[in-house]
Specification:
The protein has 257 residues and is an alpha/beta fold. It contains 9 helices and 14 strands. The chain has a single domain, classed as Rossmann fold (3-Layer(aba) Sandwich), CATH 3.40.50.300.
C-alpha cells in the first residue's frame, strides 16, 4: 500500500473528565475512500474536528505526506490541502454558485472582483468532476436541489487543489437519484487521486464506494480493514459492540473504557 497522505497516531482527546478518544490511529490514502463509521457518541465528530484543526489533540501525532506537522487552526489544515464538507454545507442561499465557491477567497483585479476568472474556474472545476446537473454557475444556490447543493459544496472543496476531502453524511436527506449523483462524485474524487473520508451511517453507501472502513466504538478504533474483507453485519457488530468474531477490540480493552 502507498504511503498515507494523512496519519493520526495515538490521538487522545478529553473534555474535562470525559475521555472521548483513546489512542486513535487513523490513516487516509491517496486514491481511496476511507469510510469512518460509528454510533452516536463513538467519537467521529471529535476526530473529524481534530483533523480539521478545530480541536487540538491532548496527545498524539498529526502526520501529513510523511512529515509530522503542527496544526493549530482550520487555516493551517486548509494550507496543507485538507478540506471538510460539513453536513450543513455552509452555503449561502442568497449567493450564486460562483460567489459561494469563492466566498472568502475571492479573486481580484485591480480594486474590484475578477468575475471572469472566478466564473471560468468554477465552470472548469464542475466540468472536471463531470457535473452535468447544474445548468449555470450563476444559478442562485436557493434554486438548487439537495443533491446539487452537495455537489457545489464538494466542488468548492476541491477548487483549491485539495489533496484530502472529508465528507460528513453527504447523502443525508437526499433522494435516490440525488444520492446516486453524490456517490458517483465521491468515487470520481478518489479516482482523481484524492484521499476521501466518508463519514456515514448508511452502510449501503459505505459498501458501495469505500475502499477501507475504520469503525469507532466508544472512542477507540475497533477495526481498520479493507471494505472487501468484511460484511455488512460485521461492520454493524463492530459499531454496536466493538467486536465481531475475531475482529475488533478484546473484552479487556472494551471493559477499560
Amino acid at each position: 500500500m502507498t504511503q498515507p497522505l494523512l496519519e493520526l497516531r495515538g490521538v487522545n482527546k478529553s473534555f474535562g473528565v470525559v475521555h472521548v478518544l483513546h489512542d486513535v490511529d487513523f490513516a487516509v490514502y491517496p486514491g481511496q475512500v476511507t469510510a469512518l463509521v460509528g454510533d452516536n457518541g463513538a467519537g467521529k465528530s471529535t476526530l473529524v474536528k481534530i483533523i480539521a484543526g478545530i480541536y487540538g489533540r491532548d496527545t498524539g501525532d498529526y502526520i501529513f505526506d510523511g512529515e509530522q506537522v503542527s496544526v493549530h487552526s482550520p487555516r493551517d489544515v486548509a494550507a496543507l490541502g485538507v478540506e471538510v464538507v460539513y453536513q450543513d454545507l455552509a452555503l449561502c442561499d442568497n449567493l450564486d454558485i460562483v460567489e459561494n465557491m469563492f466566498l472568502g477567497r475571492e479573486e481580484t483585479k485591480g480594486i474590484g472582483l475578477d468575475e471572469v476568472t472566478m466564473e471560468s474556474r468554477a465552470r472548469e472545476t464542475l466540468a472536471s468532476l463531470s457535473v452535468r446537473t447544474v445548468k449555470s454557475v450563476r444559478q442562485s444556490v436557493s434554486s438548487l436541489s439537495g443533491g446539487q447543493r452537495q455537489t457545489v459544496a464538494i466542488a468548492k472543496a476541491v477548487l483549491w487543489n485539495s489533496k484530502i476531502v472529508l465528507l460528513d453524511e453527504p447523502t443525508a436527506a437526499l433522494g435516490v437519484a440525488q444520492t446516486r449523483q453524490v456517490l458517483d462524485l465521491v468515487r470520481r474524487l478518489a479516482d482523481r487521486g484524492l484521499g476521501v473520508v466518508l463519514i456515514s451511517h448508511n452502510m449501503g453507501d459505505v459498501f458501495e464506494v469505500a475502499d477501507r472502513i475504520t469503525a469507532l466504538y466508544l472512542g477507540q478504533v475497533a477495526a481498520d480493514v479493507p471494505a472487501k474483507d468484511v460484511t455488512h453485519s460485521q461492520v454493524v457488530e463492530l459499531i454496536t459492540a466493538g467486536r465481531s468474531g475475531d475482529l475488533g477490540l478484546t473484552n479487556a480493552a472494551t471493559a477499560t473504557i
